[in-house]
Design a protein that fits this description.
The chain is an alpha/beta fold and 397 residues long. It is 33% helix and 25% strand. It has 2 domains: 6-179, Flavin prenyltransferase-like (Rossmann fold, 3-Layer(aba) Sandwich), CATH 3.40.50; 187-281 and 292-396, Rossmann fold. The longest helix has 18 residues, at 379-396. It is globular. The structure holds cytidine-5'-triphosphate. Cytidine-5'-triphosphate (CTP) binds next to helix 11 and strand 16.
């Protein structure tokens, strides 16, 4: 719930502005006080009257207009905000905030706020991928601004790609998650991504893991107040904000880092897709082809999860099982053999689930024999559900 919280919603000029109405309506239903600010561009897509009716408060549209019913000073709206949400956030507003420009009501208020600022970008895919926009986003992330989305999909401009604003429900959920601090005081170690096992200076063995599930877990746990260490194999993802990040390449490197760190943690989540085998020997020179077939002899990597299972003490240990068949049987075998408290199992061949997807569909298997099917959801939502379960296990210990 968001009662006792004030959310300032800034709306900028993009076709997704119409979705801001639903965001405001959902926030109100959760009990939040909502104040809206619209840029001039936003008013071309949505009328202030809509947001005034839904929020129950006057809508700020003009920096210099005499306030009609507004009984707080202009900049004081910034002080009211526990959350300052900008949805949709155009490339223009992102650029202005990143550059410290304050030339209208919205940019002035967002500059003055001490609340958490959340931006939900929406724009054409090529604009979104523009290095200037990307570097503005990176800069703001590093300064503690939160970003949600954008999603991939069909865009109003006729293009298809990344640039669609997150759905109102997800944006509001994101705020609720920022509000929840039920993991404070917990130290959580998370591994993510694939490992890479080198053959020679130009080749390696790896797998399809994107790291998305582990990074979502790290970000959600951090937002819920945990101190998070993320040990990651090579991925193309941005480092989650506010977590201790350790980059590794091989299973052996991951094992060494985990061995060194696990004792300092209360909860360990092993979402990494660790390579079970590595080339027995590494050639420091590039291997040249010959006329005959070639064989690479592989040797076993350490099983990090099994090591943790043997040494976990009363720490909560969560493992993953990526399967293509016999999901339940294989997951339960891993649960038992590796002595973990919870296995998150997914069929990587299922539609909308698996390695590179933004969504996942998992089943949770617990040590006491219980199991829970989680429907197809975003990896962020699944991360939250896993963390809810982990917290319950932790409270039982
Ligand atoms: N795991 C690990 N170290 C390994 C292999 C796997 O820590 N060398 C962990 C993974 O991080 C995951 C769990 O074990 O949490 C299951 O990984 P998975 O690849 O599904 O299973 P494996 O144990 O490798 O078994 P198999 O490949 O036979 O399915």
């Amino acid at each position: 719930m968001l009662s006792n919280k004030t959310v300032v919603v800034g709306v900028t000029g993009g076709i997704a502005a119409y979705k801001a109405a639903e965001v405001v309506s959902r926030l109100k239903k959760l009990g939040a006080q909502v104040h809206c600010i619209m840029t001039e561009g936003a008013q071309a897509f949505l009328t202030p009257l809509t947001l005034r009716t839904l929020s129950g408060n006057p809508v700020m549209t003009d920096m210099f207009k005499e306030p009609v019913k507004w009984n707080v000073e202009h900049v004081a709206i910034a002080d009211l905000a526990d959350f300052f949400l900008i949805a949709p956030a155009t490339a223009n507003i992102i650029g202005k905030i990143a550059s410290g420009i304050a030339d209208d009501f919205l940019t002035t208020a967002v500059m003055a706020t001490k609340g958490k600022v959340i931006l939900a970008p929406a724009m054409n895919v090529n604009m979104y991928n523009n290095p200037i926009v990307q570097s503005n986003i990176q800069k703001l992330k590093q300064l503690g601004y939160f970003f949600i989305g954008p999603d991939e999909g069909n865009l109003a401009c006729g293009y298809s790609g990344k640039g669609r604003m997150k759905e109102p429900e997800e944006i509001v959920d994101f705020l609720l998650r920022l509000e929840k601090k039920d993991l404070s005081g917990k130290n959580i170690l998370i591994t993510a991504g694939p490992t890479r096992e080198p053959i020679d200076p130009v080749r390696y063995i790896t797998n399809r893991s994107s790291g998305k599930m582990g990074y979502a877990l790290a970000q959600c746990a951090q937002r819920r107040g945990a101190r998070v260490t993320l040990v990651s194999g090579p991925t193309n993802l941005d480092k989650p904000q506010g977590v201790d990040f350790i980059s590794v390449e091989t299973a052996e490197q991951m094992f060494n880092v985990v061995k060194e760190l696990f004792e300092k943690h209360d909860i360990i989540i092993k979402s990494a897709a660790v390579a079970d085998y590595r080339p027995q020997s590494y050639s420091s020179l590039k291997i040249k082809k010959s006329e005959t077939d070639m064989q690479i002899k592989l040797e076993r990597n350490p099983d990090i999860l099994s090591f943790l299972g043997k040494n976990k003490g009363n720490r909560i240990l969560v493992g993953f099982a990526a399967e293509t068949n016999d999901l339940k049987e294989n997951a339960q075998k891993k649960l038992l053999n590796k002595n973990v408290d919870l296995i998150v199992a997914n069929d990587v061949t299922a539609q909308g689930a698996g390695f590179e997807s933004d969504t996942n569909k998992v089943t949770l298997y617990f040590k006491d024999g219980a199991e829970k099917d989680i429907p197809l959801l975003t990896k962020e939502k699944i991360a939250d559900i896993i963390l809810d379960e982990v917290l319950m296990l932790n409270n039982k210990e």
